[in-house]
Amino acid sequence: MTQVSDQVSDFNRTRALELDGVHKSFGRLEVLRGIDLDLAEHEVVCLIGASGSGKSTLLRCVNLLEPIDAGRILVAGEEITGRGVDVNRVRRGIGIVFQAFNLFPHMTVLENVTLAPRKARALGRRAAEEEADRLLERFGLADKRREYPDRLSGGQQQRVAIVRALAMQPRLLLLDEVTSALDPELVAEVLDVIRELAVRGMTMLIATHEMGFARDVASRVCFLHEGRILEQGPPEQLFGEPREERTRQFLQRIVAAGRM
Predict the structure, then answer these.
(1) How far apart are CA 236 and CA 222, in angstroms?
(2) By the 8 A CB rule, do 4 and 198 touch?
(3) Nearest residue to 51 (alpha-carbon basis) of 215, 183, 205, 180
(4) Which residues does residue 72 pair with via DSSP β-bridges, in sequence order?
(5) Residue 139 pLDDT > 70, yes or no?
(6) pLDDT tens per residue, range 55-80
(7) What is the full DSSP assignment across 26-38?
(8) SS3 100
(9) What is the fold, at CATH topology level, of the domain defined by 2-102+172-256?
(10) pLDDT score of 185
């Protein structure tokens, strides 16, 4: 993790993502209540908190899957929530992977991975397949390129979903509880992929319930409570000496449940 730490130290030089006073409601339910958050290039930030705290909604707003009600979001200095923004262009640079794998069941692994680069990046079939093969080889899936999703384990399907996002060459990767739908024995293989991405300097914003993983891979951890970032800091500080009572209560419950 030394490479990532060195790059994060130059935080003020390059900001990959900025959220400034972001609010989001669904009807009368206010889910995000003024989120302020910056990510530096190559930084890995984990979002933790109870279900319903706003983690998934925050990621969906960054990817423009949900419109925000107030505030603004900037990617590499460009406001992406302003009027007249080309949403499809913005999304080409922001990969997102969900709890559900969302692979096309009628397509092979190779077809799933190459579809977006061919359509959105206008790559020819051969170039798209060569890039896909390199990624599949990198993440131990080369022998699955001709398989259909229903022939894969849950961990393999989630790794394919991550590869599919990477095939678009995003500058920012959003991961939304990507291990929640997996059997416990399959979680490690997906977390290993994310660790490898972190070491290579991928900028990531990760919503997770895996506290040990967050402590291991994140350069910063944010605790969300009732739509606000109640506390944030380096993993060793937030997990070891949380300042807020609500953070302490949340972590105590995690420890009691044997999940940390």
Answers:
(1) 12
(2) yes
(3) 180
(4) 20
(5) yes
(6) 999 999 999 999 999 999 999 999 99
(7) ETTEEEEEEEEEE
(8) coil
(9) Rossmann fold (3.40.50)
(10) 84
Among 209, 212, 208, CA closest to 239:
212
Residue with tokens 């930084």: 43
Token pair listed for 72: 């603004």
Cβ atoms within 10 Å of 202's Cβ, excluding its own: 19
- Rounded to 5 degrees, what are φ and ψ at 77? 85, -10
- Inter-residue contact 78 to 172 (CB < 8 Å): no
Mean pLDDT of the chain: 92
* Residue recorded with tokens 């390199």: 134
Structure tokens at 119: 């359509």
User: Which residue matches tokens 């989120």?
Assistant: 35
Q: Which residues contact 136 (CB under 8 A, 6 or more apart)?
A: 109, 110, 113, 142, 144, 145, 163
Please check whether residue 184 is in contact with residue 210, taking contact to mean a CB–CB distance below 8 angstroms: no
Nearest-angstrom CA–CA distance, 11 and 39: 8
Please check whether residue 35 is in contact with residue 225, taking contact to mean a CB–CB distance below 8 angstroms: no
Residue 86: CB partners within 8 Å, gap ≥ 6?
A: none
